[in-house]
Amino acid sequence: MNELVKKLTEEAGLTEEQAAKALDVIKEFIQSKVPPMMHPMIENFLATKGDNDNPLSDMMKNFGG
Questions:
Q1: With 50 as the cut, is the pLDDT of residue 26 above it?
Q2: How far is CA 42 from CA 13, 25, 29, in A?
Q3: Which residue of 5, 9, 17, 63 has the smallest Cβ count within 10 Å?
Q4: Can you state the percent helix, strand and coil of the chain, rounding each to 5?
Q5: Cβ-contact 15, 29 below 8 angstroms
Q6: Residue 49 in contact with residue 1, Cβ under 8 Å?
Q7: pLDDT for the residue numbered 60
Q8: What is the DSSP-derived secondary structure letter of residue 15?
Q9: Helix axes 2-11, 16-33, angle to 10 degrees
Q10: What percent of the chain has pLDDT over 90?
Q11: Could you state, in order of their start, the residue ranges of all structural domains in the chain?
Q12: Per residue in 33-63, pLDDT tens?
């Protein structure tokens, strides 16, 4: 999520607080559209990670990839 916050602050001109809130709204929207069993995958994908972590790679572990 830190990477997305940084991208939103740089490219969209949002403050860090605005970017974090926007991501929260997006996460809630996505979760409202998928079954509850998929919520942990969305949480993992958008979770705060170190700069070297790859959320897509972590998400794919749930699929055995």
A1: yes
A2: 25, 13, 11
A3: 63
A4: 70, 0, 30
A5: no
A6: yes
A7: 56
A8: -
A9: 120
A10: 57
A11: 2-61
A12: 999 999 999 988 887 554 445 555 555 555 6
Assess whether pLDDT exceeds 90 at residue 31. Answer: yes
A 10 A CB-CB count for 54 gives 10
User: What does the block give as tokens for 19?
Assistant: 């970017």
**Cα 55 to Cα 48: distance, rounded to the nearest angstrom:** 9
Long-range contacts of 46-50 (CB under 8 A, 24+ apart): 46/1, 46/4, 47/1, 48/1, 48/2, 49/1, 49/2, 49/3
Is the four-CA dihedral 57, 60, 64, 62 of positive or negative sign?
positive
Is 0.70 topped by the overall pTM? no
CA–CA separation, 42 and 57 (whole Å): 13
